[in-house]
Amino acid sequence: MNDDVRNIVLGLVAAGISAALGWIARTYLWNRKLRRKQAFFGLPENAESLLVVNRDPATAEPAVHRFDVFALLELSALIKDCGAHVQVVTQDSAHQGFGERTEFCVGGPGSNRRMVAHMAAMLPGVRVNVDPEPGPDRGAFRIGSELYRMEPGVTEYVLLARLTAGERRETRPVFLFCGQRAITNQAATRYLARNHERLARKYGSGSFVLLLKVVNSQAYGPDVVELVADVTKPAQSPLPAPEPAAQKKSHRAD
Predict the structure, then answer these.
(1) What is the predicted pLDDT for the residue at 222?
(2) DSSP H/E element including 52
(3) Cβ neighbours of residue 43 under 8 Å, at least 6 residues apart?
(4) What is the model's pLDDT at position 233?
(5) C-alpha to C-alpha distances, 121 to 92, 125, 163, nearest whole angstrom
(6) What are the transmembrane regions (predicted)?
(7) How far apart are CA 64 and CA 237, in angstroms?
(8) Torsion 40-199-157-131 (CA) sign
């Protein structure tokens, strides 16, 4: 074997080794990223999860608003990416506890009985105005001492929460998407899909409650979302005594 042939063979061997090492490294990083995603969502391979569907309060017949359907599709994609399975149930038929399976609950208390139960049990510092009559406080959130009113199509709010019950390591989380309108529910699921890695780094496997603001949904749909605040502490604390009307704070679009 002359020098030229030997150099060619050595080059091919080196290229093969480099390609193999690159493949191993990429596979390792991909698997590590997948494991972190599975841990954050509580969805190991072949795990079972629950997707609780709300109803459209604007119709007398059982129906789901189209924006809530889009939200469910985005959540289903996240679940599939983790290699888990999902059971879809309606808000009035989810008669079971929480913690055994990861649960994704979509819709405010006006359209989802399951959300009412979760908020009463785990978010005592949050109240949502579900009065169907028109008025400035319709759909408003009260979180602690703060009041967040919506201006439909311009400024709307949604709560995105990851909650766990108990200290057991195997306890599965409950994800809540509690919006003032259906489009805000979709905005929250999209925000979670885009930012779950950052949220996992910040909160790990712990609980959090985030207040998000959906900006100008009549023009931008569910795409323009701003983080208003981490409201975990006031949301999980008992609601303070009502303040005099003149001292209440409210939040509107500028």
Answers:
(1) 92
(2) strand 48-53
(3) 49, 79, 82, 83, 84, 102
(4) 95
(5) 17, 10, 11
(6) 6-29
(7) 32
(8) positive
Letter string b/e over residues 148-182, b meaning 16 or more CB atoms within 10 A of that residue's CB:
bbbeeeebbbbbbbbbbbeeeeebbbbbbbbbbbb
- Contact (CB, 8 A) for 49 and 98: no
How high is the mean pLDDT of the chain?
84
Write the secondary structure of 110-160 as one string of H (helix), E (strand) and C (coil).
CCCHHHHHHHHHHCCCEEECCCCCCCCCCCCEEECCEEECCECCCEEEEEE
Report the interhelical angle of 66-81 vs 3-41 (nearest 10°): 130
**Please, which residues have CB within 8 angstroms of residue 146's CB and are 6 or more apart in sequence?**
234, 249, 251
CA distances from 16 to 19, 21, 28, 44 (A): 5, 9, 18, 34
Q: Can you tell me whether residue 93 is helix, strand or coil?
A: coil
Q: Which amino acid is at 165?
A: A
- The whole-number pLDDT of residue 245 equals 53
pLDDT at position 97 is 72
- Cα separation, 29 vs 187, whole angstroms: 29
| 223 pLDDT higher than 70 | yes
Alpha-carbon gap, residue 56 to 44, rounded angstroms: 32
Q: Whole-model pTM?
A: 0.82
pLDDT tens by residue, 176-219? 999 999 999 999 999 999 999 999 999 988 999 999 999 999 99
Q: Order of strands, edge to edge, in the sheet holding 126-128?
A: 126-128, 141-143, 146-148, 249-251
